[in-house]
Amino acid sequence: MENSSEIVSFVLAAYGNIGGLKYLYFIIILVWYLSICVANTVLIVVIRVDRRLHEPMYILLCNLCVNEINASTSLYPLLLSQMFSDSHEVTVPWCFLQMCCLYTSAPAEFCSLAAMAYDRYISICHPLRYNVIMNTERVFLLILLVWLYSFLSFIFSFSFIFSLKFCGNIIHNAYCDHQLIIRLSCAVPIQSFISNISFLLLSVFIPFSLISVTYMKILRVCRKTSKENKQKAVTTCTPQIISVSNLFVGCIFYFIDFKFLVSQVPDEVRIILPMYVLIFQPMLTPFMYGFKLPKIRQSYQRFLFERK
Fold it and tell me: Residue 188 CB: number of other CB atoms within 10 A?
C-alpha cells in the first residue's frame, strides 16, 4: 500500500484506451464546448443590450446561462487537456478545484430554476404586486443567495474530503468524481454516506420541492383564468419545466449508474451517463429559452439582422 503522503496527483484511467480516436474526440468535445459558450454568451448579450429584456425573469435567465458556462468550463477544458496527455495525471489541488466547481454548479442550477419558478409564481399569481416584490435589488439579492447557498451546500457536504489521506490515486473516470476519490482514501469515513444524502437533500430535493410546489400553485391559479392567460403561462413556464425534467433525468442516470449498474454496463456508458446533464443541459438552456420565449426570439432577430 502506498504511503498517503506520496499522493500528489490522481490518474484519470478513463483515457487509457482511446488510442487513435483521441483526435476525433478532441474535435467533437472542442466544438461542443465552444458551441455551449457561444450559445449562452449570445443569449446573455442579447438580454444585456435589449432594454426591453431588463426584467427579473431575464436577469435570472442570465444567471442560469452563467452557471451553464461555469459548469461546462469546470469539465471540458480538463477533458481536452487529457486527450493528448501521456500520464493522464491531475494534481490533487486541481482535482479538488474541479470538484468544487462541478458540485457548486449542480445546486446552483436547481436553485436558479427555483428562483425563476418563484418569479413566474409572483408574475402569474400576484401580478399587481410583481414590480414591488421582484424589484431589481431583490433579484440580485436572490442571485447572490443562490450562489451562496450552492457553495455552502458543497462545503457542508464534501469539505471533509480535503482532509482525507489517500492510499491510491487511480480514478476510473474522465473527471474528478467525489465518490471515486473517497474510495481512494486509506479509510472510508462514515461521512461518505452522510455527505451523499446531505448533498442530494440540499442540492436536489429542497430546490425541486420548491419548484414543484410553485408550479402546483401556478396550475391552480391558471385553471381559473382566461384562455389567453393560460397560454401566456404555458409559454413562459414550458422552458423551465423542460429544464427541470432534463435535470431530473440526469440525476436518475447518475445515481442508477453508480448505485445499481456499475458491473452490468460497458465502461463507456458508465463514464458518459453521469455526465449526461453536463453534456446536454448547457446547450438545452439557451435554445429552449431562445426559441420558446417570444420576446427573446424577437430580440435575437433584431440583434442578428437589424444591426447590420
Answer: 12
User: Could you give phi then psi for residue 135, rounded to 5 degrees?
Assistant: -80, 170
Beta strand ranges found along the chain (DSSP E): 9-12, 89-91, 170-171
**In this predicted model, what pLDDT tens digit does every residue of 91-136 receive, in sequence order?**
888 999 999 999 999 999 999 999 999 998 998 888 889 999 998 8
Reading the block at residue 202, the C-alpha cell is 440540499
Q: Are 143 and 236 in contact (CB under 8 A)?
A: no
C-alpha cell at 199: 448533498
Q: Is the pLDDT of residue 307 over 70?
A: no
Q: Note the helical H segments in 84-167.
A: 92-125, 130-133, 136-158
Which residue type, as a one-letter code, is found at position 300?
Answer: Y
Classify burial at 19, counting beta carbons within 10 Å of its beta carbon; exposed 0-12, middle 13-18, buried 19 or more.
Answer: exposed
Name all contacts of 302-305 with Cβ < 8 Å and 24+ positions apart: 302/50, 303/45, 303/46, 303/49, 303/50
- Identify which of 81, 74, 89 has the alpha carbon closest to the alpha carbon of residue 30: 81
Partners of residue 171 on adjacent β-strands: 12
pTM: predicted TM-score of the whole model, two decimal places: 0.88
Neighbours of 122 (CB within 10 A): 17
What pLDDT, on a 0 to 100 scale, did the predictor assign at position 87?
A: 80
Residue with cell 454516506: 193
In one-letter notation, the amino acid at residue 170 is I
> What number of other Cβ atoms are within 10 A of residue 249's Cβ?
14
Cell numbers given for 41: 454568451
> What is the arrangement of strands in the sheet containing 9-12, beginning at the earlier edge strand?
89-91, 9-12, 170-171
Q: Which three cell numbers, joined as nine digits, stand for 132? A: 414591488
CA distances from 245 to 85, 118, 148, 170, 281 (A): 36, 17, 24, 34, 10
Q: State the Cα angle at 165 between 162 and 168, rounded to 5°.
A: 110
